[in-house]
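Hi everyone,

Forwarding the result from last night's run.
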Amino acid sequence: MKSKLLKNALTGLFGLIISAGVQAVPIVGGLGTVAATPALDFSAFDGEHAGILTVDGFQFAERFVGQTVSPQVGPSVILMPWGLIDPEHDTVTTASTGNPLALASAGTGIGPNNIGVIGAANAVFGYGPDKYGLYGVGALSILFPDNLFEIGFDIIGAAGGSDTLFFQFFEADGQLIGDKLVMDALNGSYGFKTDHSYTGPGIRGMTVFNQDTGGLALVFPKQTVPTPATLLLLIGGLGLMMIFRLRGREARVF
């Protein structure tokens, strides 16, 4: 009975399709979740990165070896000076042939840089696959330094949408854990844990991609957790970045 009630509550909270193996877990407030949230410091990595980015032992890239990433037209968005456009988002297959699990060093977009970091926000995201180089519509894959049974982080920048956020979790040998998690794209805290049905060695890697109009980024706290008010200011500030042209790209939206 408790399990059914929890499932219903999580479905309402996250708008997710339950996946056997790895489950979303409740939020306890602010940036914290009941899942362990690694403290990573991205302040020295602000800007664009090609290949694999390593931060405090965690490795970030577009995809894992064996995964196929292909462009898929996403929701329309107004982007100056082009007006209304239909940007392409990364879509990722669940296949991974790496044993051990390993990140692919090359991205699949039009430019060499597939990972972006906003140092002031301690945020990391994937670039889009098309000429607009949009913030946060590209795939992002993370290889953990050790096997984990829980992981937490924050999402910022999402405009919101039903069934527009996708997660895949992998073991160290590249095996997919459970099914792809499908969720609503919303700003806030996210936590994941292996569930009672899982008897494997733990989670060694994760891939996230989306079909959200705003695109999104993952935020990991450094050492201290910002207050909810600080988080709201951060989200608002990132929204203003939609109007800026930055180095190395024609234009970016986040």
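The chain has a mean pLDDT of 77.

Cheers,
N.
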